[in-house]
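pasting for the record
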Amino acid sequence: MDYREFGWTGDKVSVIGMGTYYDPVFMATAMLLRHQNNRDSKIDALRKGLDLGMNLIDTAEVYQTENLVAEAVRGQRREDLFIATKVSAHHLKYNSVLKAAENSLRRLGLSYIDLYQIHFPNPAVPVEETMKAMEKLVEEGRIRYIGVSNFSLEQMKRAEDALSSNKLASNQVEYNLLARSIERGIVQHCEENRIAILPYRPVAHGALTSPSSALKATMEEISRKHGGKTHAQIALNWLTSRSRLNFPIPRVSRPQRVIEDAGAAGWTLDSDDMRKLEEATKKS
């Protein structure tokens, strides 16, 4: 596994992380049962990723997977892990943030969180109030870094301005070969300020694992060039090759899939590969 500095923090983090979003919070009873039945597979997948050197794990209070992460990391050296979780958009008032963080720490079985993120902006709660609580958590040693998720460039800048003694560490956003809207502002801002990006849906809900038309032909050509890399590995490597600030977090649910994800590290697409991929997406 390759490691890079997580933006300005300097922490060494695996270039491929592990996401733990499986089912919506409002899942139906049948979905909840499936979620519980797959519990062992998900824990095994997380442990396989840890064995392969993937030390970045992303979760959230609304995912209801913090307890799975706790079980997966049990017995691991805490200093080797980079655990990220998120506070719900419904818990952004000052006291609610503090309480939500304590609840996440309890479910994770940890004494501190590496990256605590605002899951979604909430216009009903001033970000200044939320960031005051976030900075209190940093001061107390309950969290190390402050991040945001699903924030626009304007919202990011307001969040940064609301911080008095800390810097924004990251923004978690949808980003992949087929969804590149963050390149219109957010990416440049992150590059200028060394703010890490955590791309979610890095394989576009599976659309990049089974591409069609021109993109499929291009991916197969690149696969042959790089020793048989899969479509998913190429899609993930496009992100890590595009910027050293990108840390994609594909969802982990089965050990075999995690092995495939880990295979996206250790090599790099060249400029010709990147150009061909980006041109092919315009034709697909």
